[in-house]
Specification:
Helix content: 40-55%
Structural class: alpha/beta
Shape: globular
Number of helices: 8
Strand content: 15-25%
Distance between the termini: 32 Å
Number of strands: 9
Radius of gyration: 19 Å
Amino acid sequence: MERGILVVISGFSGAGKGTIMKELIRRYDYFLSVSATTRRPRTGEEDGKDYYFHTREEFQQMIDNGELIEWAEYVGNYYGTPKKYVEEQLANGRDVLLEIEMQGGMLVKEQFPDALLIFISPPSAKALKERLTGRGTESPEEIEKRLLRAVEEVKYMKEYDYIIVNDVLEDAIDKVNDLIRYDHYKACNSARMIEKMEREIGGFSKSEE
């Protein structure tokens, strides 16, 4: 069994990455890493399912204990990826999806150079603002913070392996799934298969002796 692929999915708030993630998990055998955060739960969100909700003191303790692969502050709240479950799933051959902010994505890239980084973008800045306003989950002040944050986030786009424009949702879901499937064919993700071939082909020369 080959090791699973670590997939980082990032994007502007309002780009639709959360919806894409949910559909990928529903349709395919991916493991969704649940992030830890210090923000308050939104209506309908459950602790341990949508996020692990922590106080700032608890989150700091996790940082100090080295329990996070990455962590970052976003619009006044901390977000991070617990290390234990991610490592277990990768070792068992499952592909792990991380929905994280760009700062965290760069930290993952440093620790896991073979990780697949995908950036989800709306078709335009106008569409981004319309989506943030239309979902009705943030105040005007919070929306303004997210738009200002996007000004900084756009600088990270060139650091990602692929950019997927979420204009038609079904197309975006299919494209992300295809990228993950194709990534399995990279030589760096086929180490065990390569080792097997080396052993077997090496046996040809021994059999001739």
